[in-house]
């Protein structure tokens, strides 16, 4: 399984994914689930994937191949050349449907699940920050001010901190701490999510992705994890007792 989370803030986009995939307790591996397409100053598009690995890799390969072909042939439409990021989400949805149509029946005949979801985020020059969640069927929803974040995979463990902290005007530094706490809560509660992590920050109107790989020995992540655990214990001990 996996856990990916994306925040859409006034200050920019904050995205985080893990890298664990497993097909049983004795078949665990690391695979990148975050993919960045970027032309600095013009457009940046980031994809994060969860679900059947063969399906999601097929979709990302399809999208990446179109991006390469579009550099040679301007008549080819890709997520980096289409008119809007909404259209880019449609292209990802179309790729999802194509791969599902090709592979789903055979995957399910082997007793495996073919479901997959993708978070797509980015900005084009002259456009707004956009954050979409694309489903198995190729349809999608977009994050807005009422719900400025989207999650895929094992999302339930990391949701409470986002509900309590994240608002559209949350500063990027605080948002990064929030997604790391969200991921840490998931890591502690679900063995199907694991290190290392991939972090991507896209400040508004820069059209540039700032990325970082966070390994298990990352100093600041360890400090955030330990401090959060200690703070929770302190807060718990300070709660009023219930009279019986």
Structural commentary:
This protein is α+β, with helices and mostly antiparallel strands. It has a single domain (3-230), classed as 4-Layer Sandwich (Glutamine Phosphoribosylpyrophosphate, subunit 1, domain 1). Helix content is 36%, strand content 28%. It has helices spanning 53-72, 85-109, 159-165, 172-189, 219-237; strands at 3-9, 12-17, 20-22, 28-30, 34-39, 43-51, 116-124, 130-134, 140-142, 149-153, 197-203, 210-214. It has a 5-stranded antiparallel β-sheet with strand order 10-1-2-11-12, with helices on one face. A 5-stranded antiparallel β-sheet has the order 5-6-7-8-9, covered by helices on one side. Strand 8 and strand 9 form a beta hairpin. It is globular. The model has no long low-confidence stretch (mean pLDDT 95).
């Amino acid at each position: 399984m996996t856990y990916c989370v994306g925040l859409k803030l006034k200050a920019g986009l904050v995205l985080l994914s893990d890298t664990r995939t497993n097909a049983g307790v004795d078949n665990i591996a690391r695979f990148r689930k975050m993919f960045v397409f970027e032309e600095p100053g013009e457009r940046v598009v980031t994809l994060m994937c969860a679900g059947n690995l063969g399906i999601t890799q097929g979709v990302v390969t399809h999208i990446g191949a179109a991006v390469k072909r579009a550099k040679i042939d301007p008549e080819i439409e890709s997520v980096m050349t289409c008119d809007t990021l909404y259209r880019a989400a449609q292209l990802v949805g179309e790729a999802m449907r194509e791969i599902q149509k090709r592979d789903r029946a055979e995957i399910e005949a082997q007793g495996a699940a073919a479901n997959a979801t993708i978070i797509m985020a980015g900005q084009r020059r002259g456009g707004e920050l956009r954050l979409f969640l694309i489903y198995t069927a190729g349809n999608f929803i977009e994050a807005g001010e009422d719900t400025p974040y989207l999650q895929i995979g094992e999302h339930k463990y990391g949701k409470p901190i986002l509900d309590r902290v994240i608002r559209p005007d949350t500063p990027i530094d605080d948002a990064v701490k929030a997604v790391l706490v969200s991921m840490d809560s998931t890591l502690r509660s679900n063995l199907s999510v694991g290190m290392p992590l991939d972090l991507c920050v896209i400040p508004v109107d820069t059209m540039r992705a700032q990325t970082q790989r966070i390994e298990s020995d990352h100093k600041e992540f360890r400090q955030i994890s330990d401090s959060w655990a200690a703070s929770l214990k302190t807060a718990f001990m300070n709660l009023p007792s219930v009279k019986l």
